[in-house]
């Protein structure tokens, strides 16, 4: 199923969406893994976007490299923004007003942040999503283990790759297939549909559309993110020459941009709603 609403193009992964939705409803943690641009974040956004509003507001999201203290501080920020009464009470008890919250949270030690996050998770139902984090360190894995088991809060980890080395110390937290959702490249049919939709959306005009279609289908590895990015780049004049698209240059520049994204992922501190 193809969706091109609101400027977004994606192929609906029906089975994967159903499994993630079931895990959220059952409050079961899940490792969502696969190569860069396979569509992990798009799948997450789609499923969360279909949840009731109150449940969407209880989904807390972290993206990018981080220390344990960074993650704890960020989740406290999101809890405060969602109106969590425990966090608000802690701020008030320390003599701070709402407008002073940022100054208050920056003064908290890792130990106290940990206590506050643990108490808030035990009091309210939250769902935690972690994306674009490098392979987990042992301290980060210990934190996630504490959140999952001691606080009974599901943690959904979006990880690049399929091996213990790529996932890091978090591998042992998602030890069976029940807690793992692998995403594979699209089938040829679905990748082809997505590619034609992108050609139309981005206005890729060239004399040899069939050749362009065949080459991008191969060079993208049928990764949905790669197909979308390569088509958006192909619409730029620098990749066009005498009615053709310079697909080899396009692929090289795409791979360079992807490597940059992997090494320096953008930090997203917004609440997923």
Task: Please write out the topology.
Blueprint: E1 2-3, E2 10-11, H1 14-26, E3 30-34, H2 40-49, H3 53-57, E4 59-63, H4 68-81, H5 85-93, H6 101-107, H7 110-123, E5 127-131, H8 138-150, E6 155-160, H9 164-167, E7 180-182, H10 188-202, H11 209-219, H12 224-234, E8 240-241, E9 244-245, H13 247-263
Parallel strand pairs: 3-6, 3-7, 4-5, 5-6
Antiparallel strand pairs: 1-2, 8-9
Task: Walk me through what this model shows.
With 273 residues, the chain is an alpha/beta fold. The chain folds into 2 domains: 2-184, P-loop containing nucleotide triphosphate hydrolases (Rossmann fold, 3-Layer(aba) Sandwich); 188-262. The protein is built from 13 helices and 9 strands. It has a 5-stranded parallel beta sheet, with helices on both faces. The protein has a two-stranded antiparallel ribbon with strand order 1-2. Strands 8-9 form a two-stranded antiparallel sheet. The protein starts with a strand and ends in a 10-residue tail after the last helix. Residues 268-273 have low confidence and may be disordered.
């Amino acid at each position: 199923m193809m969706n091109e609403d609101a400027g977004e193009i994606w192929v609906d992964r029906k089975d994967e969406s159903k499994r993630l939705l079931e895990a959220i409803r059952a409050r079961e943690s899940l490792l969502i893994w696969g190569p860069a641009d396979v569509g992990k974040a798009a799948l997450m956004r789609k499923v969360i976007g279909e949840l009731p509003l109150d449940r969407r507001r209880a989904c807390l999201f972290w993206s990018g490299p981080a220390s344990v203290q960074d993650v704890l501080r960020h989740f406290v920020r999101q809890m405060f923004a969602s109106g969590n009464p425990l966090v608000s009470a802690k701020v008030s008890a320390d003599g701070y007003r709402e407008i002073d919250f940022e100054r208050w949270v920056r003064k908290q030690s890792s130990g106290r942040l940990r206590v506050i996050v643990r108490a808030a998770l035990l009091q309210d139902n939250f769902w935690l999503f972690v994306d674009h984090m490098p392979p987990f360190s042992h301290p980060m894995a210990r934190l996630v283990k504490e959140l999952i088991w001691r606080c009974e809060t599901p943690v959904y980890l979006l990880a690049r790759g399929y091996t213990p080395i790529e996932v890091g110390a978090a591998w042992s937290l998602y030890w069976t297939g029940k807690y793992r959702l692998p995403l594979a490249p699209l089938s040829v049919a679905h990748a082809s549909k997505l590619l034609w939709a992108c050609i139309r959306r981005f206005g890729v005009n060239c004399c040899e559309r069939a050749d362009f279609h065949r080459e991008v289908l191969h060079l993208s590895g049928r990764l949905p993110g790669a197909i979308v990015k390569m088509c958006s780049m192909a619409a730029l004049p620098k990749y066009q020459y005498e009615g053709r698209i310079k697909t080899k240059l396009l692929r090289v520049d795409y791979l360079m941009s992807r490597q940059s994204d992997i090494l320096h992922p953008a930090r997203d501190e917004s609440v997923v709603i």
